[in-house]
Specification:
The complex is a heterodimer. Chain A is mostly helical. Chain A has 13 helices and no strands. The longest helix of chain A has 24 residues. Chain A is globular. The termini of chain A are far apart. Chain B has a six-stranded mixed beta sheet with strand order 1-14-13-17-15-16, with helices on one face. Chain B is built from twelve helices and 17 strands. Chain B is an alpha/beta fold. Chain B starts with 30 loop residues before the first strand and ends with a helix. The chains are: A mainly alpha, B alpha/beta. At the A-B interface, helix 1 of A face helix 8, strand 15, strand 16, helix 11 and helix 12 of B.
């Protein structure tokens, strides 16, 4: 018998569900959301998403080469960061700015902390926060949805020349949240649900995001507790306000389905690395983010608060994990022995 | 497979669901294995002191004859598995790779697998001490895999009393069907053994816990309960590690063994079902353990089955007999979750071997994939049956902060079931780190 024995340490079998596969599925689950935003906003958005995704991939690859490590592209995390970042930007966002933001997402959001698994914040949101600080006008200029010529022409801002003051379309529109905040107008919840409204590229269709989320959660590739706790908190909190004064505060449906609430709760807050690891910690994290979303939207200076809510939630994640260590089986009362 | 599974609710929190992979051998009746041309009986095949040899080179021994006596209370004697000649007493490797004193016996050609009648002596087993002594004399160790001398577990410490005896027929390790076949084929012996175990420990009732994927065993045993024994048979949910002592007690009695404690602390004794069967068969007649049932299975075996194998049979002889496929890549003693990888085929089958599993490339899930950084998905936290934080423990282990692991994160509560490593999508060998960390801490403690 010429048997080459392989020695392993127990367990000798492992689940087939790997990190690479999880990331792959998250990426694929984002594709329908991306496709819908391309349908709603047209060519400009297609280019935007491609630019952010490719820039993230390229940056990751360059950094890996530079640090003489094998490429980590195959774990899909850079592609997810890129696509997510693109989906959080206005549809007509200048491409050069988008590329810069994408590079920053990888460098400042992930690489300087040591790569996948070590980033304290969601890298895509770090990239977006950078852009929000650097280009406050461009990132709040929204293009209208469903223009007739959207598949043949670009928004003029898309091809803005780097470092020149970009010109924005006269036809720029307000987002539902902006319209409510500054003009007191509300948008029909059904339009919000199906995503035929203005806003960031991917934050439009609540329906598609929910379907993707349910798919991922059912395959254990996403912690269902995070979106559920965030959305429940938003629902309860805004219902209370709406119940107190339905004229001063928007309806819970509006709060849930407008802006980045859905994509934030399903795809951003659920970034496994930057969310708490303990089951109880995850609930606290979701409740904090949900509350912050409502607080920033209603009482803050900005119309939208999902990005900052999640970043603040990320910042608190380690402390939530620490405070909610599970109680050990058979633990003796009065502390560990 | 689902049609074979019973609806039950008793279980524990957390755990994992590895593929069961039991269909290959669960229908196959126990078959006898031939004698190898040379059998090797190590003097240390249990936890505790090694046995002391009673035979010398050239001596003729009869199957069932005592050939080494117990080396202390936490030790058991050894019996000759075959009638033959003692060739030598020398060092030989064991499954862990260590060299241990071993008695080599060359069976006579054509020697019978019957135990010689001359050695049978009926024993009076009316007191706990008499039973405990008989169990030790039979050389019994836990057949579930730990190989801890059984009689030690039966001696109830001063000031403690036992209310319930739990018989573990869970067999939650994938692939293995040893206990399943024993439950179907050795019902009388099992109940005889349970009666003795109850008398030895003073337990008023006994519960046999069986995973719901063995409905035939559940109903067969439930029907066979003798009228004079207070025994119930309970199905428990199919989930790994349901067969761990603490998890089974939780499922059946909803009681938690205190951290760092023993089942005795809450008045419970747990014994494996095959151990009970063996006790029922051997103890009343002063016989010794000379063979055991072993499932040989896995994608790399040509003739899988449940075999009655004489102790000391060399592994190489066993594998030659059952035949391996060309792509067989690893041999494991025990199940795939907690079993031991074998590096040398020239080792004997010992009392603690509950199964021999032969795996091939590609049947081990992510095992050979690269390791990624921990992405803090929390899957391990929701798998750990004792509610540890393996993710955090793993990071501390990588940094060498072993004291911190034990003091703040309950490292010593880990019983190494492997659920965390199994579920980890980043393929981090968590339980391996924990074993190493515990070893280093033990070493440090021994030094100081």
């Amino acid at each position: 018998m010429s048997l080459q024995l392989k020695i392993t340490t127990s367990p000798h079998i492992k689940t087939p569900l790997g990190t690479q596969k999880i990331m792959q599925h998250v990426f694929f689950a984002l594709l329908p959301v991306a496709a819908w935003s391309v349908y709603v906003f047209g060519l400009s958005t297609l280019f935007l998403l491609v630019v952010t995704t490719l820039t993230c991939a390229l940056t990751e690859n360059v950094l890996c080469r530079w640090s003489k490590k094998p490429s980590t592209l195959s774990d899909y995390s850079a592609l997810i960061t890129g696509l997510l970042l693109g989906l959080t930007l206005p549809p007509g966002f200048p491409l050069w700015m988008a590329a810069l933001g994408a590079a920053m997402a990888i460098i400042l959001g992930k690489a300087i902390f040591g790569g996948l698994g070590h980033n304290p914040f969601n890298p895509a949101l770090v990239g977006r926060a950078f852009l929000q600080a650097a280009f406050p006008v461009a990132i709040t200029t929204w293009s209208p949805p469903l223009l007739a010529e959207r598949f043949s022409t670009f928004f003029s801002s898309t091809w803005a020349v780097p470092f020149m003051k970009p010109s924005f379309d006269a036809m720029s529109s307000a987002t539902p949240l902006g319209a409510w905040k500054f003009d007191g107008l509300t948008t029909d919840t059904v339009d919000l649900f199906f995503g035929t409204t203005g806003g960031s590229a991917g934050e439009t269709s609540a329906l598609l995001i929910l379907i993707a989320g349910i798919y991922l959660a059912s395959r254990k590739m996403l912690d269902w507790k995070i979106p559920v706790s965030i959305l429940l908190t938003v629902l309860v909190f805004s219902s209370i306000l709406y119940f107190i004064d339905s004229n001063a505060y928007p309806s819970p449906g509006f709060m849930l389905f407008s802006g980045g609430c859905m994509i934030g709760a399903v795809f951003m807050a659920t970034d496994m690395v930057s969310s708490p690891v303990t089951p109880t910690g995850v609930w606290l994290y979701g409740i904090l983010i949900g509350s912050l979303i409502v607080i920033i939207r209603i009482w803050g200076g900005l119309p939208e608060g999902v990005m900052y809510s999640i970043l603040l939630g990320n910042a608190c994640a380690p402390i939530f994990s620490r405070l909610t260590q599970p109680k050990v089986f058979g633990a003796v009362k009065g502390g560990a022995k | 497979m689902d049609s074979q599974t019973l609806e039950v609710t008793k279980s524990f929190a957390h755990g994992v669901h590895p593929p069961e992979s039991k269909e290959t051998t669960r229908e196959l009746p126990i078959r006898r294995f031939p004698f190898a041309p040379l059998v090797m009986v190590p003097l240390s095949q249990h936890i505790g002191a090694p046995a002391k040899p009673l035979v010398r080179q050239g001596q003729e021994v009869v199957r069932g004859e005592i050939i080494a006596s117990a080396g202390g209370f936490v030790s058991v004697p050894m019996h000759a598995p075959a009638t033959g000649t003692v060739k030598k007493i020398a060092l030989a490797p064991n499954s862990a790779g260590a060299m241990v004193q071993t008695i080599f016996i060359e069976p006579f050609p054509g020697s019978s697998q019957q135990v010689a009648r001359g050695f049978l002596q009926e024993r009076t087993l009316d007191t706990p001490d008499a039973i405990i002594e008989a169990v030790q004399d039979s050389g019994m160790v836990g057949l579930g895999g730990a190989a801890f001398p059984t009689h030690v577990k039966l001696r109830v410490p001063e000031g403690k009393s036992v209310h319930t005896l739990i018989i573990n027929g869970v067999e939650c390790e994938p692939y293995l069907t040893t206990d399943h076949r024993v439950m179907l084929e050795q019902k009388t012996e099992i109940f005889k053994g349970i009666g003795l175990l109850m008398k030895a420990t003073g337990a008023k009732k006994a519960i046999i816990g069986i995973e719901a994927n063995k409905p035939d065993a559940i109903s067969a045993l439930a029907k066979a309960v003798p009228a004079d024994l207070n025994v119930t048979v309970e199905g428990v949910k199919v989930k790994y590690p349901q067969g761990a002592e603490k998890m089974l007690i939780k499922a059946l009695l909803n009681m938690e063994v205190p951290s760092g404690g023993l089942p005795f602390d809450i008045g419970v004794v747990v014994s494996n079902v095959a151990t009970a069967a063996e006790i029922g068969q051997l103890a009343p007649f002063g016989q010794g353990m000379v063979e055991r049932v072993i499932t040989i299975t896995g994608p790399g075996v040509k003739k899988p089955g449940n075999y009655m194998i004489p102790m000391g049979t060399p592994l190489r002889f066993v594998l030659d007999y059952v035949g391996l496929t060309d792509d067989a890549s690893s041999v494991i003693f025990g199940g795939p979750m907690m079993g031991q990888s074998i590096s040398n085929l020239d080792i004997p089958i010992t009392k603690g071997v509950s199964g021999i599993l032969i795996l091939t490339e590609g049947t081990q899930g992510n095992l050979n994939k690269p390791e990624y950084a921990c992405i803090k998905c929390g899957h391990c936290l929701e798998a750990c049956p004792i509610f540890l934080n393996p993710s955090r423990l793993g990071m501390l282990a990588k940094k060498g902060l072993y004291e911190n692991m034990a003091d703040s994160f309950h490292l010593m509560d880990c019983f190494e079931c492997g659920s965390c490593s199994f579920i980890c999508p980043s393929n981090i060998p968590l339980v391996h780190y924990f074993r190493i960390s515990k070893g280093i801490l033990r070493e440090k403690k021994a030094k100081s």
